[in-house]
Amino acid sequence: MAGAADDDFIINPENGVYVEMEGIMEVRYYYNDYDENDYDKEDLFDFQDSNRYISEDFCHKDKDSGAQNIFYCLVCECEVKSVVPLKGHVVGKKHAKRALDRKRKVLGIELEPQNAPKKKKPNPPRQRIDINITLEERMREAYDTFLGLHDITEFKNPRKSTDPPLYTCRQIGCKSAWGNSDDMFNHLKQIKHMRNFLKIFYNEDTDGIEKLNKNEVLRKAEEYATEHDCADPDTRDYQAIRKVADYEQYKEIQERSIHWTESKDKSKRDNTNFEPLGSRSTQTNERVPLFSSDWDRTPRPSLAVRVESLISNFRRSIESTRKKIDCFEGSIGDNEYNDILEIIDEDLFLLRDLIELHKIPNGPDEEHIYASAQKLLTEVSELEVRLRENGDPEKRKSLDVNNIRTKFTDLFTAEVSRIVQIELRPVLSDQTEQTVQTLANKITREKIIPNETKTFLKKGLSWNQFLVNEKTKSRVRSFVALYVKNKLKK
Questions:
Q1: Does pTM top 0.85 for this prediction?
Q2: d(CA 268, CA 278)
Q3: What is the C-alpha to C-alpha distance for residues 411 and 448, in angstroms, rounded to an integer?
Q4: What is the pLDDT of residues 263-316, one digit of tens each?
Q5: How do beta strands 39-43 and 68-73 pair?
Q6: Partners of 148 in the beta sheet?
């Protein structure tokens, strides 16, 4: 590659650049399937110079001779037997770190200590939310879409002006929404609130609004705000927010449980026999009001306990959503589909906020939050894809076929592996059961199943007919006998 441009040395698998120097990886050319030491080799640095494009069948094994080309990573000490994994391997973090260490060694640069502590960046000051700011003040600084202000009520404590204002939303479908100005500010930006508003405004097309996806709801809400001159912070009708200065109503909202909902409160008031479960116990479970002087003396769970509780709640939500998707037999855009999608959207919104808040962790507990939130975000994103697939009848049918294929392939593989183990035991009598089982599984998955699957597919049969019969058993025993002769009895 002498004389090549500098860009030619940058790792870029799509452009055929896999290594930037010699001694990182090599191409090995095997001439038969029986001798692992019988091969020629070529450094990948030299190989890529004359082969900028590598065909996908480059590593395919010749059925007759057993000859095969593979890539071998010298710094990771592993084989790569396909072009697709090769592209992923050379950009992986572990490989990149080992390749860099090799480069440092060749250039005579001192290696970093293996357990050197990571350089920590100073934590930026956390943004504190001032709950004494009113909702109107927050909205005047924001260009988001806010609808249904006439359904918002602001409550103030006339006996103590320093208490923060509290808010409720009485819009149909949102009546359990309440909290401080920051809570209500975020509620007004949620798709659920916008959808509920649009369903009321477009009363004759409720079903149509219900079928809109998240982006369509947001677009329709923005159109409404533009048409009614309430998109700009200076032209919104803040006077539509109802203001109440009543001590009793303020205290009722202030002392609500975090799990309070309108339906629970209504059932409590309507049921004359209602008795909180806590009152039947000798242990006192009375909730301490948020602004009570006793609050500071209330034991607070440790951060680790709160982290586990938070992550556990998310996992339960994901598992519940996964079950709903598995049982979903509707189509994209119907009510059930939108309900599930709304749950997914809310989880994605909360997890992204959590990741943003803890992206520069301060201690192991926050590192655990960040890592767990990243993993959960991936799971929730996969649920969204899974929901779309289940909402498409054709894809759902394809998924059903794949599930059947997986089920019968697993059963077939387990039975074949059992037969292979039986045949190997007499030959490997000096080996442990675990060793025999491991080898049997390897032979089954790498040698036998690919050929059996290929033969079965040619017959055009359904997967519930992929079963081990007497002919299959005979083929397996013959293969194991040949394998023992060529591989084990040298």
A1: no
A2: 14
A3: 14
A4: 666 655 555 444 443 443 444 445 545 455 554 555 556 666 666 777 777 888
A5: unpaired
A6: none
Task: Say how far apart CA 137 and CA 489 lie, in whole Å.
Answer: 84
| DSSP track, 124-136 | PPPPPP-TTS-HH
β-bridge pairing 152-156 and 242-245: parallel
Q: At 229, list the tokens.
A: 């001159």
In 3D space, the residue among 58, 59, 61 whose CA is nearest the CA of residue 450 turns out to be 61
DSSP 3-state assignment of 27?
strand
327-to-88, 247, 353, 392 alpha-carbon distances in Å? 35, 48, 30, 14
- Cα-to-chain-centroid distance, residue 297: 39
Query: What is the full DSSP assignment across 114-173?
Result: TTPPPPPPPPPPPPPP-TTS-HHHHHTT--S----GGGEEEEE-TT-TTSPPEEEE-STT
Residue with tokens 């001590």: 247
Q: Are 298 and 288 in contact (CB under 8 A)?
A: yes
Q: State how far the Cα of 460 lies from the Cα of 110, in Å rounded to an integer.
A: 61
**Euclidean distance between CA atoms 136 and 282, whole angstroms:** 46
Instruction: Using alpha carbons, select from 112, 201, 311, 262 the residue that is nearest to residue 253.
Output: 262
Q: How far apart are CA 128 and CA 163, in angstroms?
A: 17
309 forms bridges with which residues in the sheet? none
Q: What is the dihedral of CA 183, 186, 188, 189, to 10 degrees?
A: -170
Concatenated DSSP letters of 251-310: HHHHT--TT--HHHHHHHHH-TT---GGGGSSS--PPPPTT-TTGGGS----HHHHHHHH
| Beta-bridge mates of residue 70 | 28
Do the Cβ atoms of 41 and 29 come closer than 8 Å?
A: yes
Please identify every stretch of the chain with a pLDDT value under 70, giving residue numbers as ranges. Answer: 1-9, 33-37, 110-127, 204, 262-307, 357-366, 393-403, 489-490
Residues 6+ apart with CB under 8 A from 106: 21, 23
- The total number of residues shown for the chain amounts to 490
Helices (H), 158-260: 181-189, 191-201, 206-210, 214-227, 247-254
Residues linked to residue 28 through DSSP beta bridges, in sequence order: 41, 70
Chain CA centroid to CA 391, Å: 20
Model confidence over 380-394: pLDDT tens digits? Answer: 888 887 787 777 766
